[in-house]
Amino acid sequence: MDGKVRTRIAPSPTGWAHMGTARTALFNYLFAKKEGGDFILRIEDTDKERSQKEYEQDVLESFRWLGLEWDEGPEKNGKYGPYRQSERTELYKKYLTKLLEQGRAYWCFCTPEELEAQRAHQMSLGEAPRYKGACRNLSPQEQQGRLASGTRGVIRFAVEPKTVAFHDLIRGEIAFDTGLLGDVVIAKDLETPLYNFSVVVDDFEMQITHVIRGEDHITNTPRQILIQEALELPGVQYAHLPLLLGEDRSKLSKRHGDNSVRAFRQQGYLPEAVVNFLALLGWNPGSDREIFSLPELVKEFSLERIQKGGAIFNLKRLDWINGLYIRHMRLEELAALCAPYLPRDDVDSEKQKAIVGLYQERLKKLAEIAELADFFFADTLQYDAELLLWKDATKEGTQEILEKIRELLNGVGESEWTKDNLEKILMPEAEKAGPPEKPNRGYMLWPMRAALSGKKASPGPFEIAEVLGKEKTLERIQNAIKILAYA
Ligand code: GLU
Q1: In ligand 1, which atom is closest to the CA atom of 24?
Q2: Around Cβ 415, how many Cβ atoms within 10 Å?
Q3: Which residues on adjacent β-strands are paired with residue 51?
Q4: Topology, domain 385-486
Q5: Which residues, listed in sequence order, are joined to residue 9 by a DSSP beta bridge?
Q6: Whether CATH 1.25.40 fits 329-376
Q7: First to last CA, the chain
Q8: Is there a shared CATH topology between the 6-77+244-312 domain and the 89-241 domain?
Q9: Which of 9, 51, 217, 224 to mutate to test the pocket of ligand 1 (most atoms within 8 A of CB)?
């Protein structure tokens, strides 16, 4: 090894890439880049039944979307490939054979029923269930004989009872009594290795220096260290990241909603905001600063500032960060990203930009634009007459005001149809609106806004009118007058 830091993210493609996986990938990426090292993507698809190509594609797409480009991995290659475990069978076979030959692993032929009986017995004695090693003493000849006769077996690793200690870069010294583990299954057969084994082989073969992963893997670590030792492989450094918790402080899971990266992407969270948010799940910059770009995170990142306690996946914080990134975007760019969420795409880009511009300040995620701005695209608006009445305004009074608005707007030329002009023309009238003893602009601006949007809340009437244009604006005022007349 040339001393270069090499980290890896090793997802199993058995479901849509998860935000938790994205956070682990991010921390591996940040640490590698900070140290001038390499970030490797390895697809752990040894579980043939549950692994799917579609999910693998989703992992690649999700990481790319977040800007977490891997230095080596699928679609990239590199000198330690292939980077899919399903393509590395021969390699695992070589190491499995070695362990079997050395007697560090053995074939076990216990049936599921026998194992279950053993488990139940141990539980009844209040012991932790573990494999007692009934097959450990079969001679190599007996093992071969049974295999030759077609008996199905699995390969177990003979665990030595001892204390395995390692230094975790986040959690400090950790020691395990391996006597509690029992002999772990490391492969279903020579062609089907299991996670704890293949991960050791790959981390060595791919020259991984640092294994940064979720805390839920901490109990796998002693097993992996024992396998490493048996194969006489050098160790790696471990850093176990704090759990992600839901807002109820229980472990983040499906119960808390769809936490796949694609779900967040579909709702219109920006990759920069998601990265920023994920970075703060367990890591703190040592100051109050909350906003970081990916390159800034690379500069600031350190494993020392990762906490041990669980990190709360706080959606409000994500919304806040996302809103902030949205506000700081160039309008052209934001409008282009919003386009797929708008109900019609036959609207010219200037208009689209104008619509999106009305919401830039308040959007939390892009998908919200669909509901907020749908009225711009509607042919006729449907709503109750009530909506047009401001406070104690009467139907008749409101009708009159709308007639007045129509008359004034009619006189405005197409070329003068700007928000500022409309405001200049209508405001003097609005100031006088309502009962003479208590005039208020609300009596005019509210029904105008409601007539143009059909909504309780929307941008102001002049902004909407400018975007709608003269014809549509007048049509909607007319429609409101009609709705009142029929009410
Ligand atoms: N394939 C494992 C997972 O997805 C990788 C764990 C590890 O990083 O060792 O959880």
Answers
A1: 8
A2: 7
A3: none
A4: Arc Repressor Mutant, subunit A (1.10.10)
A5: 41
A6: no
A7: 82
A8: yes
A9: 217
